[in-house]
Structure to design on (443 residues):
């Protein structure tokens, strides 16, 4: 439900606006002056602010500046008398969406402007939630283990259960978290991600819970944290195992009570947020070592999902490479790029310690280096080899493509239990070609 804050010092006008917008099923809060509206903005987030420009005390222009600074995602519509349209134009320069002239002509004009403002916010949030390089195109599930993972995600998505994604770095935990959000009943709400390992300990608490003006050196204005920004949606806590004990305790309280205080604040703020957490650590070992709270672990692991590393998803490597290469080629303006058979063999033979992220990097590098339309094996420049898969070394070191191809076939035969038809299909070659290569390589 959209939340609208209406502020006007004339009781008749604000009541009229409130009734006109409430009739469309929107939640409307009324404020009699700028100071009261500022307190509302500190306490709660709003989709739309409708404010008169001329008010005693804190006027509409000051309220607009405060909103743009502290809650830039809130749309603003200003009310102005016919003689002060110049002020409304100035307000729009400061970021107001539109203005409505008084006396008001009727409820239809208000509903139209409010609807357009809320729709612009929705479209902006939609673009932020679904950037072109972070869509569902990165999810491929041919391997049985990955199919099970996706089924788990889609089963838990419509609920509000807290989900804990477990997997090595680069396995696509955030991609799955975004898919979980998109398939949830909160899909129209925000998806907010915070990497707990990428922010310094001194700033992380403020980043998570926000801070009040003057609460510490450099806190020049009140700021809402990620929990408030995610209100009504999903908060993704990546690398949650990196949280220090103090923040673990605060996070536990939010999960239990759905409320918190900003840094330097005393007012309790309530939020409606669904938590999805992720880690590449062995949390059982962290618990045993006393570095992670057991009660927090049980709160986070309501629905744990283990994402298999790419080396355990060999059937996914080919389709995933095609999907990633298609995206990379579009971004480079070269949509005709394709993988040669020897390049596919090299991809299948490598152990991928960096998982899907490493695969994407290798393909992007190959696409940039490729002078024609076909990426050959000599452009597949992988890093140090995983000890379990010694067959895949850089072509620059003199390895023969035949050795790579032999190892790829051998591994796929092992994965399929010796089923040659499945092996050929998963390698992307014909059955007759497979028989020829089996004979050639003595397999």
């Amino acid at each position: 439900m959209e939340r609208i804050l209406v502020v006007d010092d004339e009781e008749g006008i604000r009541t009229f606006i409130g009734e006109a917008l409430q009739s469309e099923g929107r939640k409307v809060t009324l404020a009699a002056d700028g100071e009261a509206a500022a307190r509302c903005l500190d306490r709660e987030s709003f989709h739309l602010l409708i404010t008169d420009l001329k008010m005693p005390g804190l006027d509409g222009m000051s309220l607009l500046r405060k909103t743009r600074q502290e809650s830039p995602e809130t749309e603003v519509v200003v009310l102005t008398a016919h003689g002060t349209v110049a002020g409304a134009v100035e307000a729009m320069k400061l970021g107001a969406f539109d203005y409505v002239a008084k006396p008001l002509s009727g409820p239809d004009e208000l509903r139209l402007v409010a609807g357009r403002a809320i729709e612009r916010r929705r479209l902006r949030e939609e673009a932020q939630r679904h950037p072109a390089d972070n869509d569902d195109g990165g999810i491929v599930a041919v391997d049985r283990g990955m199919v099970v993972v996706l089924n788990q995600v889609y089963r838990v998505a419509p609920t509000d259960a807290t989900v804990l994604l477990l997997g090595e770095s680069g396995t696509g935990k955030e991609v799955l978290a975004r898919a979980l959000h998109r398939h949830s009943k909160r899909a129209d709400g925000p998806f907010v991600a915070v990497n707990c390992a990428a922010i310094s300990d001194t700033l992380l608490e403020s980043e998570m819970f926000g801070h009040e003006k003057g609460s510490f050196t450099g806190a020049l204005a009140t700021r809402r944290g990620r929990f408030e920004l995610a209100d009504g949606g999903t908060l993704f806590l990546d690398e949650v195992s990196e949280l220090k004990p103090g923040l673990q305790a605060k996070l536990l309280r939010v999960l239990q009570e759905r409320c918190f205080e900003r840094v330097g604040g005393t007012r309790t703020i309530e939020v409606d947020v669904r938590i999805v957490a992720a880690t590449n650590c062995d949390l059982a070992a962290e618990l045993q070592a006393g570095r992670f709270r057991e009660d927090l672990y049980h709160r986070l692991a309501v629905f744990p999902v283990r994402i298999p590393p790419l080396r355990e998803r060999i059937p996914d490597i080919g389709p995933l490479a095609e999907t990633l290469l298609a995206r990379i080629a579009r971004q480079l303006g070269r949509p005709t790029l394709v993988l040669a058979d020897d390049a596919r063999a090299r991809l299948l033979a490598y152990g991928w310690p960096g998982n899907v992220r490493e695969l994407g990097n290798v393909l992007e590098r190959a696409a940039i280096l490729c002078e024609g339309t076909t990426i050959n094996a000599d452009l597949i420049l992988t890093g140090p080899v995983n000890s379990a898969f010694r067959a895949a070394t850089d072509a620059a070191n003199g390895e023969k493509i035949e050795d790579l191809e032999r190892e790829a076939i051998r591994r796929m035969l092992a994965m399929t239990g010796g089923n040659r038809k499945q092996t050929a299909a998963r390698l992307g070659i014909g059955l007759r070609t497979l028989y020829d290569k089996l004979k050639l390589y003595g397999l």
DSSP finds 18 helices and 14 strands in the chain.
